[in-house]
Amino acid sequence: MTDVPSARSAEVGRRIGVGLMYGLFRPRVLGAWRVPAAGPLIFAVNHSHNLDGPMVMGVAPRPTHFLIKKEAFIGPLDPFLTGIGQLKVDRHSIDRTAISRALGVLERGGVLGIFPEGTRGEGDFAAIRAGLAYFAVRGGAPIVPVAVLGSSDRPGRLVTALPPLRSRVDVVFGDPFEAIEGARSSGAGGSGRRTRKALDEATERIQKQLTAHLENATRLTGR
């Protein structure tokens, strides 16, 4: 199997994230108790600004390996992101190395972080890609929806696409769910159906779950 980053490296990233996020912003974390303490898991995170990944990495109760676009791995960021267990992915092709590493994280009982919208946008889960369903079904991993609700639309930003310094950023973790309904109880796990039809149905189910979580998180936080 292609080299899989260690949980220890992601834990280093989590500790760095804790210091940076709580030092620069005012995170408010809700629902972290819903995150299973062990076993393979996928965080499905909405993506509206560049802070989302580092914020979740810093406040999540478990170390997380995010799939991150290869364009972010430039200069000194390349060895840094690799060193803290993050996964480089080519969004414009079938990146078999990234797929193998991501599945390896799940096989070892780790946490995989995914932006199901594929790229930074409105952050409303309006359009998600089938990759999330593939990893959930193939890796036998439940999905925890994560809503990051910041303040990137307010004045006072020093960096484009980032909230103002010391502003409150809410991170809301939802209840874990299976990509295919009843997969856990039926014992499907990582051997669940991976036909195109099954993955399409799983993607539709996932989108409904993520959208509902985002709506609930918005009401809960008043954002």
Characterise the protein shown here.
It is a single chain. With 223 residues, this protein is α/β, with parallel strands linked by helices. It has 7 helices and 7 strands, in the order H-E-E-H-E-H-E-H-E-H-E-E-H-H. The protein has helices at residues 7-24, 52-59, 77-83, 96-107, 131-138, 183-186, 196-221, and strands spanning 26-30, 41-45, 64-69, 87-89, 111-114, 143-149, 168-173. Strands 1-7-6-2-5-3-4 form a 7-stranded mixed sheet, with helices on both faces. Helix 3 links the parallel strand 3 (64-69) and strand 4 (87-89). Helix 1 crosses helix 2 (52-59). Residues 185-189 have low confidence and may be disordered.
Q: How would you summarize what this structure contains?
A:
The protein is of the alpha/beta class. 37% of the residues lie in helices and 16% in strands. The chain contains 7 helices and 7 strands, in the order αββαβαβαβαββαα.
Q: Which whole number gives the mean pLDDT?
A: 85
Beta-sheet strand percentage?
15-25%
Number of helices: 7
Q: What's the end-to-end separation, in Å?
A: 43 Å
Largest beta-sheet characterization: 7 strands, mixed
- Give helix % range: 25-40%
Total beta strand runs = 7
Strand order of the largest sheet: 1-7-6-2-5-3-4
Low-confidence stretches: 185-189
One letter per element, helices H and strands E, the order comes to: HEEHEHEHEHEEHH
Gyration radius, in Å: 16 Å
Computed structural class: alpha/beta
- Bulk shape: globular
